[in-house]
Amino acid sequence: MLYSVRMRAAQGSTHEQGGKHISGAERLVSGELLTSVAAAMLRRALSHSRGTADFINLTVETVPAEAVREVTCLPIITVNTPDMIAGRESAQAMLIRAGVAPVAAAAGMSALAGLPVSLRGAMVVNAQTGLRLDTQAERGVRVSRMDIADEQDYLHWLNRQGYGNNQIHLREAVVLAAKVMSAPGMVAELCWSDDPEYTAGYVATPAAYTRFTQLKPHGSPIGGRIFFIQENTDLKQLVDYLQYQPILVKVPAAGGA
Ligand code: PML
Ligand code: MG
Ligand code: MG
Ligand code: MG
What is the pLDDT of residues 196-229, one digit of tens each? Predict the structure, then answer.
């Protein structure tokens, strides 16, 4: 038996009533880690660079171990971009190389850049037309029920590549992107952070998780994710997979990245 532990925190009022999204987190852990993981999520919600939460929703649900599927995380590549404009140009070019139509890549980029407030989930966009397909408005589609299979393996794997222990944004995003790219019909993901001091973002494709060191202006509290999907994808099946299919992510076998 595993436990899905999910947290979302907002300021002003609940997310549903228009509160400002502060923080969210997802874990899938064994019973022995449950209380420490839940406590760490509360601490995070209460001391976040986006502000102090006054609404915190913490959900714990059991997940049968038989339902869990394993996926391998993507190789990580970091591209140092001199500024946000160069970063966004490189990210857009990468989306196009991954099979996103140029018009859709451009539309996705400006949808994310033009958000009035951060979404707590992702926008789902047609990879041919760039049209938004999910009807979740400011909620977006949340990816849940995933975690790293073996924390020590993962930290060693990251460390060997020069990604230190405290890079929490990277650690979590690599796990999320591995689940996202394993979903049916997924072409690519584009993300940059909603944390004001965190300017890096990434494009995930079936081949790699490519980070760009500057995808948004320093100080901006607006970020989010876009999932570009194939035209004929069953949206309900995709969203179910992203929210409900439990996934544990393992590092590539030795010899890999
Ligand atoms: C977030 O958690 O706010 C998204 C972080 C995206 C970039 C992570 C990285 O440095 O690769
Ligand atoms: Mg979050
Ligand atoms: Mg995050
Ligand atoms: Mg954040």
Answer: 999 999 999 999 999 999 999 999 999 999 999 9
Q: Is residue 255 part of a domain?
A: no
Task: Give the closest residue (by CA) to ligand 1 atom 1.
Answer: 193
- Which of 18, 45, 67 is the last residue before a domain boundary? 67
Binding pocket residue ranges, ligand 1, CB within 6 Å: 169-170, 172-173, 191, 193-195, 198, 200-202, 211, 223
Ligand 1 mean position to 66 CA, how many Å?
30
Ligand 4 centroid from CA 5, angstroms: 17
Residue nearest to atom 10 of ligand 1 (CA): 170
Ligand 1 atom at minimum distance from 78 CA: 11
Q: Indicate the residue type of 236.
A: K
Distance between CA atoms of 119 and 216, rounded to whole angstroms?
A: 16
* Residue 49: inside a domain: yes
Residue 229 CA: distances (Å) to CA of 80, 99, 127, 141? 27, 10, 5, 13
> What is this model's ipTM?
0.87
Same domain, 102 and 227: yes
Tokens representing residue 27 in the block = 């874990």
Beta carbons of 80 and 162 less than 8 angstroms apart: no
Residues 44 and 118 reside in one and the same domain: no
What average pLDDT does this structure show over 67-95? 97
Residue 164: which domain range? 72-250
Q: 10-14, 56-60, 104-108, 165-169 — which is least confidently predicted?
A: 165-169
